[in-house]
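Q: Sequence in, structure out?
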Amino acid sequence: MTVQIILGMLAVCCILRGILQLLQSRPACDAKDGVSQTTGNREIQADVFEIKITAAGKLAVLADGIGKENTGKVCAALAVKEFVEAFSLYRSLNNPRYFFERTMYGIHRSMQKVLEERQGGASIGVALLAEGRLHYAMAGQVKIALFRGGDLIPLCESQTVDVLAQRAYQQGRISRQETLWSLQDKKLWNYVGKDGFCQMEACEVPVQLKKGDLVVMMTKGIYEELPFAEMEQILGNEMLTAQGKADRIVQCVDKSMDQDRENGSIAVLLTDGAMR
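A: Exactly. Output:
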């Protein structure tokens, strides 16, 4: 065997090893999912999103940081990191709600230590697609919705004062007049990292997925700027990929004339992989 042939074989082996290392180092995520962001009129994009796929399913975490300067970004990054690391330890999840709750309160304690005297925290939304079902939880004001048959169906409500008032009225705890006074108050009353953080919202019964369903996660910089009807038209466009749909929604949001636009993020998750 000549020296040239040996050197050629070594070169091919090095190239193949490099390709394998590159593939192994790529983040575990479904390339068919779509995610897009806008900074709005803010200086810092304080939203953080990540997908983690393991034998237990596909976990998507979206955090909207709250706080001045880079405090919100730090809190959002901490939330996503801890959720993904916790999920990485599981090969199966028998009780997703317990996992969500335990992890959410663990993140709250971590944020309190990091924040010390500063004010900050994060709204957190988490979705788990596994065995043909969708499990989800939320604290703050990340919207999680299911797109099915042309309709975008919200699965959870924001934890804002107006929503709290409506619930209290339905439960007979406050009067109709008190409810009406509170309906204009969109202030966030509960989020991870806040003193007195009290509860998360989670699905009582997991959503049974159907072929073609999309799970949509978004922060207020998206859903406060674009009506659901317009989102439904984009999400129903079969000529667009999931990434194309996410990008198109953000493009429409960026056309808004609102001078006080929040930064926003949207994730469009295909669910067919969870049904295999």
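The chain has one domain: 27-157+199-275.
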